[in-house]
From TrEMBL:
PROSITE patterns: CB, TYR_RECOMBINASE. Residues 1-81 form the Core-binding (CB) domain. The keyword rRNA-binding does not apply. This is Site-specific integrase. Pfam families: Phage_int_SAM_4, Phage_integrase. InterPro entries: CB (IPR044068), DNA_brk_join_enz (IPR011010), Integrase-like_cat_sf (IPR013762), Integrase_catalytic (IPR002104), Integrase_recombinase_N (IPR010998), Integrase_SAM-like_N (IPR004107), Tyrosine_recombinase_XerCD (IPR050090). It comes from Thioalkalicoccus limnaeus. Gene3D superfamilies: 1.10.150.130, Intergrase catalytic core. The lineage of its organism: Bacteria, Pseudomonadati, Pseudomonadota, Gammaproteobacteria, Chromatiales. The keyword DNA-binding applies. Keywords: DNA integration, DNA recombination, DNA-binding. It comes from the Bacteria. Residues 98-273 form the Tyr recombinase domain.
């Protein structure tokens, strides 16, 4: 399996997949091999079909997890083993169409204020104030901050694309205050070992801050990015501009993230300035 694994890594690199996609797709093929107890290059379409029936019926995985496994395994057979087609006749579970419980400005302010750790509060402020993904916050470098032009460079975000996002005055000042306190050198939020922090710490900090703030709405850390998108739309920001700021390849993804807000008004851009966040 090691030779096949290496071939798959090379194929994913040639397609420009992110590190997270590498991990997910490799895990999908490992799961298939573990279930069948055979090397994946010896399997037939019927074996693959049985595996996905197992994931859906016995393991009862969420639709998103099944689709991720499907995409990873399909990539392996098409791009690594050069199958002419992958037609498994598998009916994948439909994605649940749920409207996320949007955080209001007051709730975002309460969550940030309830986060007692300055480092984590700065990271959560980036998730909301710049609409960043968790992985993007964790891999920020000090050099990515352009204070003079008030821009933040997101290197190799989702889809292996770089982009620039605007740093509002409030967010830029929060970053400067954080830097004066911690003086990071390379990574903006380093671990004790000098590498980027793992996602677990920030996720736990968000969950705890949300609990302390008394916010009971369902949703994880990604809710701050949803709130950024919707609040910017309400402030009058154009959808196409928001698409570029969020790093979406398709405008349909941007539209799916947004709520319809009939009270949208023009002119508001600095989201953090609208919050009363404790500076402690």
């Amino acid at each position: 399996m090691s030779a096949l694994r290496q071939r798959m890594i090379v194929a994913m690199a040639m397609h420009g997949f992110s590190a997270r996609t590498h991990e997910s797709y490799l895990a999908a093929v490992r799961g298939l091999a573990k279930y069948t107890r055979r090397s994946p290059d010896t399997l037939k379409s019927a074996d693959l079909k049985r595996y996905f029936e197992y994931l859906v019926r016995e393991r009862q995985l969420a639709p998103a997890s099944v689709r991720l496994a499907y995409n990873g395994i399909r990539f392996f057979y098409l791009q690594v083993l050069a199958w002419p087609a992958v037609d498994l006749e598998v009916t994948l579970p439909k994605r649940a169409q749920r409207i996320p419980e949007l955080l209001t400005r007051a709730e975002v302010a309460a969550i940030l204020a309830a986060c007692g750790d300055r480092r984590y509060r700065t990271m959560l402020s980036l998730c909301y104030g710049a609409g960043l993904r968790l992985s993007e916050v964790l891999t920020l470098r000090v050099a990515d901050i352009d204070g003079e032009r008030k821009l933040l460079r997101i290197a190799q975000g989702k889809g292996a694309k770089d982009r620039l996002v605007v740093l509002s005055p409030s967010l830029l000042e929060a970053l400067r205050a954080y830097w004066r306190l911690y003086r990071p050198r390379e990574w903006l939020f380093p671990s004790r070992g000098g590498t980027p922090l793992s996602p677990t710490g920030l996720q736990k900090a968000f969950t705890e801050a949300k609990r302390r703030a008394g916010v009971s709405k369902v949703g994880g850390l990604h809710g701050l990015r949803h709130a950024y998108a919707t609040h910017q739309l309400a402030a009058g920001l154009g959808v196409e501009r928001l698409q570029r700021l969020m790093g979406h390849a398709s405008i349909h993804t941007t539209l799916r993230d947004l709520h319809w807000l009939p009270s949208a008004s023009e002119g508001e851009r600095d989201l953090l300035a609208k919050l009363e966040v404790a500076d402690g």
